[in-house]
Amino acid sequence: MLSSVAFLSGPLLQASTSDSPYCRLITAGLLFSLVGDFFLLPSRADFSTRDSTKERKISASFQLGVVAFAAAHIAYVFAFLSDSGEISRGLLTTTFVATMVLAKWLGVVYPPSHSSAISNVLDLAIAPDMKPLVFVYALIISSMFAVAVSTVPSSLSTVSPYQRSVGAAMFVASDLFVAKDAFGRSSAPDQRGWFRIAVGYGLYFWGQMVIAGTVGA
């Protein structure tokens, strides 16, 4: 939570004195992410009592966290589009489709009951009532990543034209760790090593920092 507040402070201060839609939308995305962090924190207690061989019941707090992060990705989509000198529709479509295909292969989208090399690679078991929410979230985050990759900043507000693509990619990768921890059958609580936790959190917080750094850079 403290890390989220830290990288939110700069864009928030700038948004209070700026009329830039990009700045305001990125700030909104960071705020929604902070709300998502808040809702996901109590949900982590659920992991300590999980039967790793079955679908587990997902708390309302976790679901609210997913909704908050979906709202953050939507804000980022509008932000990237508001500051876009050009957009490659071919790259947009290709990236979106490829990301959704990858999500299906990994088992994030409507996974089959068994894991194999060609389907449900992460060995996820998602409860039936959660599958539509996860599917919609996958559509939204795939759209965010596709828009980030296929647009070029018009104001050159970033240190690199690829900065927000990198941040978006890190965010997407971090969500795979969340999916594995939340829905993975083979991920019992005592198997969640410090390295995997560190990588997941590192990707998320640094990804957010990279995106926040595109404001007024």
UniProtKB/TrEMBL annotation:
It is found in: Membrane. It is a multi-pass membrane protein. Pfam families: YhhN. One of its GO terms (molecular function) is hydrolase activity. The keyword Membrane applies. GO terms for cellular component: membrane. Keywords: Membrane, Transmembrane, Transmembrane helix. Belongs to the TMEM86 family. This is YhhN domain protein.
